[in-house]
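User: Could you check the structure of this?
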Amino acid sequence: MFFFLSRLSFPTDMQHPNRLAAFVALGHRLATLPTQEPDDALYSLLSQCRNQNPWFDQPNVLAALRGVAELLREEPLRRWSARYPPEPATPRLVGVVMAGNIPLVGFHDALCVLLSGHVLLAKLSKDDTVLMRWVLDELVQLEPRFADRIQLVERLNAADAFIATGSDNTARYFDYYFGKKPHIIRRNRTSLAVLTGRESDHDLGLLGEDIFRYYGLGCRNVSKLYAPQGYNFTPLLDALQPWHRVLEHNRYQNNYDYNKSILLVNRVPHLDSGFLLLTESAQLVSPISVLHHVAYASEVDLLDQLTDVAAQTQCLVSGGAQYPGSVAFGQAQHPGISDYADGVDTMNFLAQLI
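Assistant: Sure, the predicted structure tokens are below.
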């Protein structure tokens, strides 16, 4: 369905209103999928996703599809896109190296490239080809002219600019190969939660969405807690009990069993909910099934600690979004359309390509 596009044949017959309407239609399409009782077509898609990547089970793939549908709501999408030039100064071939840690994590980059009027050269992650191909196919079915603007590739030699997402190690590789052209290169980040001791049981329960959705594999998953000295973690662990079902996933359970044995063998003090291990650690990123925590002595101490790790922080959550710069518990995995990864304005980057 996707074809190679040469510079000489760059399509000019689709303007911003057409592109915007197509993405709005895609949002409607995804929002009306029969997720409560998947039909045969959706069930087949869900099965293919899990066969390709066992972490991509039905609840998490459906959550990702709902998330994309939310991103494509018409009014927020129109307001957001109106902040940028409707057409590029010079249309370019933009190479996007997509991650595959959670379902459709590369969709926002694809949206930005296509809506801004450039051509997408997408190198899909081997862990997320089925779902990403399906969504792009749906877009082309709704607006066939996008077929001339999307190319799925293994190599990005033809690209004029690059957007790449990966680990700190792969970022060095990206710097080497893409550094001479305009680029956005993203590195490891994680998300954090601030506790005060004044949260309700309901608030603490909402934090489970930030910790466990996608089994903790995303950069917007909370991997570390900042709690006041002497904080009692028992109410939190009790409030997270509804998420015990994560242990039904054999890979999650394997991680839990392994990390528990490491903590026990090394005699590391920890709390164990039966599916989540909570331990004090200075490390920012925690393994799957483990949640780190650290104490703060005062508001000033908390601010200092968060400032020290700001460059590695993707998202900060707190009860009711009371802490400055945070989002409410339960909202880390529901970014808005302008919540750019690593805080870099992708649309502005694309608008400046010449």
